[in-house]
Amino acid sequence: MDKFWNDNLEVKEELVEVVKIMKKRVKSSNKLISDILLDMVNNSGKMLRPAFVIISAKFGNYDRKKILPLAAAIEMLHMATLVHDDIIDNALIRRSKPTIQAEYGKDYAVFIGDFLFSQSFLLLSDNINVANLKKVSKVVSRICKGEIDQFESRYDINITINDYLKRIAAKTAALFALSFYVGAYESNCGEELAKILGSIGYNIGIAFQIIDDILDYTGEESVVGKPLCNDIRQGVFTLPLIYSLERNRDEKIISLIKKRNYCEDDIKRIVAFVQQNGGITQSKMLAEKYTKKAFDKIAMLKDSPPKQILIDVTTKLLYRNY
Amino acid sequence: MDKFWNDNLEVKEELVEVVKIMKKRVKSSNKLISDILLDMVNNSGKMLRPAFVIISAKFGNYDRKKILPLAAAIEMLHMATLVHDDIIDNALIRRSKPTIQAEYGKDYAVFIGDFLFSQSFLLLSDNINVANLKKVSKVVSRICKGEIDQFESRYDINITINDYLKRIAAKTAALFALSFYVGAYESNCGEELAKILGSIGYNIGIAFQIIDDILDYTGEESVVGKPLCNDIRQGVFTLPLIYSLERNRDEKIISLIKKRNYCEDDIKRIVAFVQQNGGITQSKMLAEKYTKKAFDKIAMLKDSPPKQILIDVTTKLLYRNY
């Protein structure tokens, strides 16, 4: 289990169980499918989404037998989108290991992702009510649309902060929000509390993705676990660059950006441009704004043990370097 | 609507409604997604699976409001697998038009397929009970596994008839069976009749896929709507070749087959080998065996208008040239 959870043994123990459930669910009579997916489950990162399902469920009548499979299903859905994302991004490395598309080819990656989707829906069908299953399907549609929007707007120097926020809402915050919402709802927290928790998840998700995008500029490769400046290389312009271009329509940089297929020196020039024009600082301020929104909503919740866990996790998550 | 249904106006009219439902469901605020999918829906082939849902449902208390969306969802699921199949197969043409992966690239095709999956599950959630939703998820897993099995066994000259039958059961017959089963079940036919209809669907599916694989050798390109001998080119060995290799381990042919990357002349030699060794005739006999199994089971059903439709459709389908 990722060291992120070392300070939070209550959540960590539950996530260990979630991993066990996932291991059962990715087994197939095709040995290669099993091997690839067991590898992926064994290297499953922070497992934020299942953790959110669990933490949120603890605000209600926590029933492990129901909540842990639900958490596993949500993580498998996320894994499916990662496998397919890596095809689009031509990503070679994720979580410090070769991606499925890099190691086995795009062909396998397509159906490995589909297999995960279907196994996730199979597990969901048993552990969620129909209205929530529909919400999950809608979020998956939204993620797909977000990915296609992002793909279409590559190399677009006119992308706005609003476009960016819409895109990360779809590709990240929607599933964060859903994880909180279904955890609470399926623990009988009631619609009102489930919605508040969902909205906390949404704000955490936006802040988290902005920080992730900042780390693509400022992080250390060995700590982040994937190559830096990957977004720029793919023509995906994120908040730091969008802010900088908004402040300074430097002609040289714009013609460099329009050129595409950047060499290492181009990347360095773009990063320098972003740093000189306050793109990182401005992005951090926006991340803090969403972090504050999340904490303001958390503050509205009644004091309770899960509230304290939520405060701890959110604090750690949004002040991270990996 | 495909001319296949011109003799069967009752089914045709329902399928026209199914197309309308699909058109609503593939709309997205991303114009490209909508355009691509509307094109695909407008060129939707024979729509066998939704037709099976409808015909099977007519054996029970037929409720259009429930059955037509269900039929649309099953077809969208099938469309999703086609979009992803074409990525694996590098297919350029399907239904006489460029495939999504050929026209827009593999990147788009991945998420367009995922979008269809999620929209299908969204529609299913409203029109099916949980037990059947699980069955659908299982069939999708099975299709994925079948595709991966097929991909792994490319260029394998030792593939057996049993391997082949398992593969086509997963990739084709399972969804045929499910279409019949859920149509009947959701029309309150009762478990027993639903299972008989499901098993009719299974046998039709096996026969259908064998015929499809024969047509890849013997059809006319303009009639079939996709390039011929596509399976061999991809290293996918189907029943005609498997039978022929079982009968004659011709060393020259085996070394030719092992060479991979066949030129047109190689393809002609393999096709000639298959014809000379009775691969087509033997395959036709096996298709007829499954066709007979399907008709034997249909004969067990009480005489009724949907039984007559089923006989007509099965007869036409299994004696087709496109």
Description:
The structure is a homodimer of 322-residue chains. With 322 residues, the first copy, chain A, is mostly helical. The first copy, chain A, contains 16 helices and two strands. In chain A, helix 1 (9-25) packs across helix 4 (64-89), helix 4 runs parallel beside helix 7 and helix 7 packs antiparallel against helix 8. Chain A has a single domain (8-318), classed as Farnesyl Diphosphate Synthase (Orthogonal Bundle). The first copy, chain A, has a two-stranded antiparallel sheet with strand order 1-2. Helices cover 75% and strands 1% of the residues of chain A. The A-B interface holds A 28-30, 32-33, 81, 84, 87-88, 106-108, 110-115, 117-119, 121-122, 125-126, 130, 133-134, 137-138, 140-141, 143-145, 147-149, 151-152 and B 28-30, 32-33, 81, 84, 87-88, 106-108, 110-115, 117-119, 121-122, 125-126, 130, 133-134, 137-138, 140-141, 143-145, 147-149, 151-152.
Please summarize what this structure is.
The first copy, chain A, contains 16 helices and two strands. Chain A is mostly helical.
Proportion in β-strands of chain A: under 5%
Biggest sheet: strand arrangement of chain A = 1-2
- Write down the oligomeric state: homodimer
* Name of the CATH homologous superfamily of chain A: Farnesyl Diphosphate Synthase
Give the second-level CATH assignment, the architecture of chain A: Orthogonal Bundle
Poorly predicted parts of chain A: none
- CA-atom Rg of chain A in angstroms: 20 Å
